[in-house]
């Protein structure tokens, strides 16, 4: 994070990080909604603070922080993006991969109750590996299936947590 | 000596063959996950937490202790072999450790890290045995106002002292506080920020938050910037040390422990400062003796910071157990874990559930010892993990993140929350918002509100009740210093990055850049 070597040196073209204004706007919206949500609460008896004070304070400060961030952005405050072992900040971000991964996860959310963990988990692994650029499909399917079935049994036998079996009900 | 007797009782409860097996599994799982690139101890603990939920409390503790130490050690293995610290506490270890590894002394670096962690962890845990009960007996007397002040202190110090940019730190903190608001209000039972969703009114599980922000956020961030060429991994044999290595290591181990524990034990700590202090101390001592190998792979530079790191981690158990205050990401996740086991850390914990506390402390000592026994021989195996192809590695991390958050409540909705929080984590990395203040906000926010309302209900709404206790006034004075001091230091001294350059850090990072290409 504070690694001076791995951060991209700010070039004159990226003096301002304008997408930060989006974050600032998000903070203002979230803060304002938090404040509004608090106004809908009823105040109880014998409770001098009440359920409203905390959301009022948090919402207000969040709005103020959003405005401060907007000002800081316009005055040239650039975030020092986080480096890491597998992170290469010299190329532009590959948001398509992120979108694919989010799609795979969303698919899991929607189908897990029907398919069950053993199938869903395997698909999750294969889908993520594929999105991240793996092209060894057969191996990924095998690895994913083994991991999903093994974790199902590990939770079932070892920990007493029954993950849904889904369409494999009766087979597992 | 009373405490030692109680600790022995803890050992008696914990030391069964079955529990030892759980502990060994915990150490192996913890190291396995911790060694994976991009995963620090906090993330390893969060990911593996659900594994322990099905067990009874004592077995869960001992497995958890194994996971905890395994995750810590896994992190330093990655730091030494890849020069890529999983979290800021192992930055200092990575410096000399990776230089040693490149000079063909990876085995000695891993050995001194393992033994140093063991010694520091053991001394640190024994100090907890003596300090935590004493602090707890004092803490029972602390009223709600001082408690409230302590939480303000923990938040402010973590947010403004540690990170690079206070504005970004506070943004993260308040996002966390907002997430902490979601759910039923404690007194009136009305849902807040729940969008009429009964599952949200139930509050967001801290484990889902931690896994989403740490693991999923990190995986998505890496996915957006995946390095096309594989990182360079240094092969390693079985760790060992010569007699001369021992002679050079024991001083740094003990000094590092002495630095680490106090910083962990005060509720403003963290491991960044003591590891840094240990590093520069060892460098100066080596220079004074005319044997300065720093910059070329000095074993002292691994032994000292690694011991400081572990002693500080042990020290964080003092505020965690005695006050219920987490000050590092790992201890924040741990607090969530304890709550999952039905334990409410705080002043009354020591008197209400002493058996569990002593069992936990005994578990920590056992986990630490097992780690040494298992991981010295297994180090070459762990090093191979670093060669897993990246698509499969991160697919695996996503797989376990999903499994962990789903297994807690078996609700697909939790997976959806995980995705949203993962995207939030991604956004935080994109905009350089620190993660720790957010987690702290989620955990401490509701507690803080509880204490404030307690204090106000007792005083009948008089606001000056908040500074009616002398302790509270002292703490607010410290808070003021914590806010003002960094501002003053920044104006009279160059930025921390410039200090790091003086210590020779910058040269190393540029070299890393080259090998990475």
TrEMBL record, chain B:
Domain of life of the source: Bacteria
Alphabetical keyword list:
Membrane, Transmembrane, Transmembrane helix
InterPro entries in the record: DUF112_TM (IPR002823)
Q: Which residues cross the membrane?
A: 20-49, 61-82, 109-132, 144-162, 169-186, 206-224, 317-338, 358-381, 393-411, 431-450, 471-489
In this chain the DUF112 domain maps to 20-440
One Pfam family name is TctA
Does Transcription regulation count among this protein's keywords? no
Does Transmembrane show up as a keyword for this record?
yes
Q: What is this protein called?
A: Tripartite tricarboxylate transporter permease
What does UniProt list as this organism's lineage?
A: Bacteria, Bacillati, Actinomycetota, Actinomycetes, Propionibacteriales
